[in-house]
Design goal:
Radius of gyration: 25 Å
Low-confidence stretches: 225-232
Order of helices and strands: HHHHHHHHHHHHHHHHHHHHHHHHHHH
Distance between the termini: 42 Å
Number of strands: 0
Oligomer: single chain
Number of helices: 27
Largest sheet: none
Helix content: over 70%
Strand content: under 5%
Mean pLDDT: 79
């Protein structure tokens, strides 16, 4: 390797004990899945159904790993260089911006490719079992994995260069991955079977941007519903789109990665209260006064939690004008889903639109909550401000309560903005009232579980990037990883094993509440709610112990 950035990034990453542990766990899980499904007693399925089921589970596990792991390391790479002051040294070295970006990208992609190589023995075992095509399934799956990994690494590097904090870079990176991997599948659900051919074609091309939809097409499965949606393979289209997106974000990063990066002045701004009467009247009307970002804030009340107020005023998405923008965006999406529900009620039924609403809301919880709560305490410890908070008259209980309430308030408003979609379901079919009530209860349980889990994880680590990434990984493992056992129902796992796995999955319980096919026979409600309550209590206990340890002299 002639690029010193590659050697530093990749070698430094491989020397960490956590990297070795991740590789061992990753390879062990894949090997255990294949061994578990290996024919016993000399009985071999001549149809290859068992091998195909194992390979599907194996493929989705690989893709989930790529979605979680690929953006994690590059998302914190450049922002940490900026915080440490070493990025300016790199820019003043003989290395060009292209060489710096190439070294960062190759270092991040190299680690992901190592995990892909570790999965080859498990894929070979699936091929030996029969029923799996080398050129029709194995090769396309690995091409999708490699293309998606490179694409997400390039996007994460751009977000890392744009962000100012590590946790903000992780939020931006995972938000972009969520849009490309999940939200791009939604338009095809509504445009399929449309009388306008161009609209249906556009929906298919947007769906081809998702690696999940593309892989499902390769494996001959549907993604969102059981109505046959997104079953056509778009492997070539996905590879072309992925290449274009990778080149686009690479050029944007290289263009921004220059000497002007640190020479961008910021306007000081003016306080609205100190401006003329006409300007104050105009901004009062346009911003409804309360949401004016340049309005002088009032003093903190005597009964208010100062940490809660501090979090809302210092966090970008805690400020009123940014929060209302997010709420407005969620409201627009919800209104669009209302129209889709009214349009699709005659053909697919309101329950299908309800399933899409549930999936989008749970995906919003999984995306927003770790970013909000994953660094609540660890970011304070990493920056050294935890010691400053301890020097104030505030108790540790009040500090932690204020931080959790700030995340809960933001999460509550975002979820509240998506509720009108369920009102449309009630207008279409008034008999859905009981089902909608169960769904809203399940969503509230899911949000509280995710918030408490992410908060507990933030108290266990001393770096915001580690805690936020761990929170994303744990929640995705619980809500998405356990669906792999449900995917192998009937062939790999029995009824009781599948039910035991789904009982700890709040997403499965919410889908069961909406009446999704494949989940209702397991009777997950209210048993899942009790388990989530116990898990939330355990998370609170872990957080109390970790915070108590932080209050002791270091």
């Amino acid at each position: 390797m002639n690029n010193p950035v590659v050697e530093r990034e990749l070698t430094g990453m491989l020397r960490r004990g956590r990297t070795l542990a991740a590789q061992v766990i990753f390879a062990s899980v894949l090997a255990a899945a294949v061994v578990l499904a290996w024919p016993h007693g000399g009985n071999v399925s001549l149809t290859g159904a068992q091998s195909q089921q194992v390979f599907r589970l194996f493929s989705y596990a690989l893709l989930l790993g790529a979605i979680v792991i690929a953006p994690a390391f590059p998302a914190v790479s450049l922002v940490r260089e900026k915080q440490a002051g070493t990025l300016a040294l790199l820019l003043n070295s003989p290395l060009t911006p292209r060489a710096i970006f190439g070294g960062k990208l190759l270092g991040a992609v190299g680690f992901v490719l190592m995990l892909v190589v570790l999965s080859l023995p498990a894929a070979a075992a699936c091929y030996v079992m029969g029923g799996v095509s080398l050129t029709g399934e194995i090769v396309p799956v690995y091409l999708i994995l490699i293309a998606a990994s490179i694409q997400y690494c390039a996007i994460a590097l751009y977000m890392s260069l744009r962000a100012r904090r590590v946790d903000g870079a992780l939020r931006l990176a995972y938000a972009a991955v969520f849009v490309l991997a999940v939200l791009t599948m939604v338009p095809a659900e509504f445009t399929q079977g449309s009388m306008f051919t161009s609209l249906a074609t556009a929906g298919d091309w947007v769906g081809a941007m998702s690696p999940l939809a593309t892989m499902a097409g390769v494996l001959g499965q549907s993604v969102l519903t059981n109505a046959g949606t997104l079953t056509t393979s778009h492997t070539v289209a996905f590879l072309v789109i992925s290449l274009c997106v990778t080149l686009l974000f690479s050029l944007l990063t290289i263009r921004r990665l220059g000497q002007r990066l640190f020479d961008q002045p910021r306007a000081a701004g003016k306080i609205t209260d100190d401006r003329s009467g006409g300007v104050r009247f105009f901004r009062r009307v346009m911003y409804l006064w309360f949401f004016d970002p340049q309005r002088r804030s009032r003093l903190t009340g005597p009964l208010a939690n100062p940490v809660f107020v501090k979090e809302l005023r210092t966090s970008r998405f805690g400020r009123s004008h940014w929060l209302m923008r997010l709420v407005g965006l969620c409201l627009v999406v919800s209104l669009g889903l209302m129209l889709a529900a009214a349009y699709g009620a005659a053909s697919a039924g309101s329950h299908v639109m309800g399933m899409i609403l549930v999936l989008l809301q749970v995906a919003l919880i999984l995306l927003i909550t770790p970013g909000l709560a994953g660094g609540l305490i660890s970011s304070e410890v990493e920056s050294g401000s935890w010691q400053l908070l301890q020097m104030t008259p505030l108790s540790a209980r009040r500090i932690v309560t204020g931080k959790i309430l700030s995340s809960l308030w933001t999460l509550f408003l975002l979820l509240l903005a998506t509720v009108p979609g369920y009102l449309a379901m009630l207008v279409i079919d008034t008999s859905e009232a009981a089902r909608v009530g169960r769904v809203l209860t399940a969503l509230a349980v899911t949000a509280l579980f995710a918030l408490l889990t992410a908060s507990a994880i933030s108290a266990m680590f001393r770096k915001a990037a580690t805690s936020t990434g761990t929170a994303y990984g744990v929640l995705l493992l619980v809500c998405v990883g356990t669906l792999g056992i449900w995917q192998g129902r009937g062939t790999l796992f029995g009824f009781q094993a599948v039910r035991a796995a789904l009982l700890i999955n709040p997403l499965a319980a919410t889908l069961a509440a909406i009446g999704a096919p494949g989940f209702t026979p397991y009777q997950l409600i209210p048993a899942n709610w009790y388990i989530m309550a116990v898990a939330g209590a355990l998370a609170v206990g872990v957080m109390v112990v970790c915070v108590w340890r932080l209050t002791k002299p270091q």
